[in-house]
Structures are given as structure tokens and as C-alpha cells.
Amino acid sequence: MWAILSGIEGNLTAFQAVLRDIQTLNIEQLYILGDLVGINPDSEKVVQRIRYPHADELSPQVCRGWWEEQCIILHGLVATGEPTELEVQYGAETAKKLWDSVSSETVKWLAALEFGFVELDCLLIHGSTVSVSEELTPKTSPWQILDRLQRMEVNHLFCGRSGEVFDYELQAGSIATTVTTLDSQHLPQTMTTAQKRLIGVGSVGRKPPKATYTLYNPYTNGVEFRTVYY
């Protein structure tokens, strides 16, 4: 069984409550799909708790999320210029709070995180195969979801950007395509796709006093959403 978390956002109390819940389960792998930090002053403590788990806890596999990306941009560790996305959504004051909440040493650690993980036929990622900022939900166009899955040739995509829990299925089928140019029309091609799923894993710290996360059984493809109150 896998436990899949996202959206801690520096909420240490929520994260520790989820860790205690996980301890009661038979979990083989622990994944954290980004947004470890936020504008919460406990962000540093959350990162330390993740980096140095207790002796009786699983060592999590962690990938980068939206808030980590904003930290990296703020500290000039990527080619992107100003943190315009952060300022547009939250304002300059939030950018200052984020700078104060996460140390430069921690930001360097965040910058080394993976973009996502491919395990079996599953992609575990914060946003999508296009960007950490892209928010996939059941309202997203099926064609767009199919494209994001096809890019990595997987059948299950677990994402945390929306902060919601959902299990959305794309039924198996086939797609016929034809390319027409100025010179000629190419013969139609048919692509067959297997059944695919988009799974929102929830948010641990975004919506106090409720933390949500996801359990996944890779042997049966079973998904269970768990809620912890703290």
C-alpha cells in the first residue's frame, strides 16, 4: 500500500497528525507530491521533519510543488526572472512572507527535488507533465488529461495541485487522426488507448482542521481517500 500526500504548506500540526494516522496502517511507500512549504512560519520544521524521519517512520519520496517552485524563483536558482505568478495570485507581501519562511539552505534542498515519479504504470506529480502550475481536475478536458497521461505512457496520474480528492476515469477507446497539408492528405491513423485514471490526492495542510490524503494499492489498483482531523 502507498500513502500519497500533498499540500502540507508548512502546517506542521496537520502533517504530524497524518503521520500518526499512517503509522496505524500497513504502508510500504510514502510519497509527498509537493507543496511542503508555504507562508507558514513552521515551513522549516516541516522540511526538517521530512528530511529526517523518526526511526520507526518511512523515508518519503518527495517531488517539487508550486510553492517550492516559487521559493526557487525568489532565490534566483532558475533561469526564470521575477516571481510574477506568485505576485499576481497572492501579492508582493506574500512573496516577502515566503522569503522569510524558508531559509536559503532549505531552498537549495528544494531545488534538487525530483519533478515527479514514475512507478509501475503510475505517474506521481504535483501539477502535470507540462508544469507544476497546471491544475488538473475532473472539469479538465478529457483530451487534455489524455495528453498528460500519454506523454509519460502511464495509466494512472496522481496529482496534488488542486488540493481536492477525486478519482476520474477515462474509458478505453480508440482515436482516429488524419493530417492534411497543403500538398496532400495522409492516411488516417488509429490509436487505441487503455482505461486511464486521474486521481487527486487531497491536501494535508491547506484546509484546517481537516487533512486529506490518498492510499493506493498497486496490486489491485484500489484507491482510498482518508481524512484526519487535528
UniProtKB/TrEMBL annotation:
GO terms for cellular component: cytoplasm. SUPFAM superfamilies: Metallo-dependent phosphatases (SSF56300). This is Metallophosphatase. InterPro entries: Ap4A_hydrolase, Metallo-depent_PP-like. GO terms for molecular function: phosphatase activity. It comes from the Bacteria. The lineage of its organism: Bacteria, Bacillati, Cyanobacteriota, Cyanophyceae, Oscillatoriophycideae.
